């Protein structure tokens, strides 16, 4: 059974918006026999698609499974670049590793890697990222912006704004951003972003934007050591969230805002970022590799650098740190 043809048939059926398509019509369109069409229907059912077979009318897809397979994402996806190519694996070590590999093999701008679970998901500062199977969105996006490498860190901030907008659109939740890359709900982390760079003497070759979004976990789905600091959209809203819809929204806003950043700079996005921030105006402790600074977070610069004023009145630019509030 050619699975690509199975998915093409499913796509055709989903695009017919609820109308049944006859076995004969599908057979003619795909140049195969009606028996072959019937086998593809069985294959889809095995994959969790619910198919209604209407007498004399044909087949209709009633529901699709809760997976992040390309077909379930690409139907209804309103982007031009991001997500036009999606690499999906049921399980992997880390989508970052796959995305780095694909980027080296010249995968186009906007390629997305999605998985249901990661065995070695990684976070910032070489931390482990908990990736419960089928409960979250574990994804890496390959971007190839034509900007100098020093502009790379802002992509993390821009992506954070995109994710907040997506969560707001798909749920009734109002997430906040903790500098630089944590998205919080009720003070607990529901999303992390890890931006990695492939560059050479010619500049940025690829940005690998890794997104870990806790969607439908319950408390016990998290490892014990993060249960006190992590949360999911479901835990806060009390409702199971449609992961496919959420991925489409994240891809849409990521394309919109990264393009806005490339075309118009950080100005508008900085205002948006600050409007979502929990950090700005607050007393914070910034833990860096060798030292810690305490003071008030006054804002971010046009480069996305956190501006921290210590008690002695000095203003410090913080490029990378763990922030405690
Ligand atoms: C952080 O807050 O420390 C960043 C977490 C990023 C996790 C995502 S999950 C998808 C992608 N693959 C990984 O291994 N990490 C990122």
List the helices and strands and how they pair.
Layout: H1 3-15, H2 23-30, H3 34-46, E1 50-54, E2 58-63, H4 70-74, E3 86-92, H5 95-104, E4 112-118, E5 136-143, H6 152-170, E6 176-178, E7 182-185, E8 188-200, E9 203-214, H7 233-237, H8 243-264, H9 267-276, E10 283-287, E11 292-300, E12 306-310, E13 315-318, E14 322-324
Parallel strand pairs: 3-4
Antiparallel strand pairs: 1-2, 4-5, 5-9, 6-7, 7-8, 8-9, 10-11, 10-14, 11-12, 12-13
Helix pairs in contact: 1-3, 2-3, 6-8, 6-9
GO biological process, one term: regulation of DNA-templated transcription
EC number: 6.3.4.15
GO molecular function, one term: transferase activity
Alpha carbon gyration radius: 22 Å
Q: Estimate the mean pLDDT confidence.
A: 94
Q: Major sheet, described briefly? A: 7 strands, mixed
Our count of domains comes out at: 3
Q: What assembly state would you assign to the polypeptide chains in this entry? A: single chain
CATH topology of the largest domain: BirA Bifunctional Protein, domain 2
Question: Based on helices, strands and strand pairing, what is the structural class?
Answer: alpha+beta
Count of DSSP-assigned helices: 9
CATH homologous superfamily of the largest domain?
Bira Bifunctional Protein, Domain 2
- Shape annotation: elongated
- Using DSSP, what is the number of strands? 14
Distance between the termini: 56 Å
CATH-derived architecture of the largest domain: 2-Layer Sandwich
Can you write the helix and strand succession as a string? Answer: HHHEEHEHEEHEEEEHHHEEEEE
Poorly predicted runs: none
Helix content: 25-40%
At the first level of CATH, what is the class of the largest domain? Alpha Beta
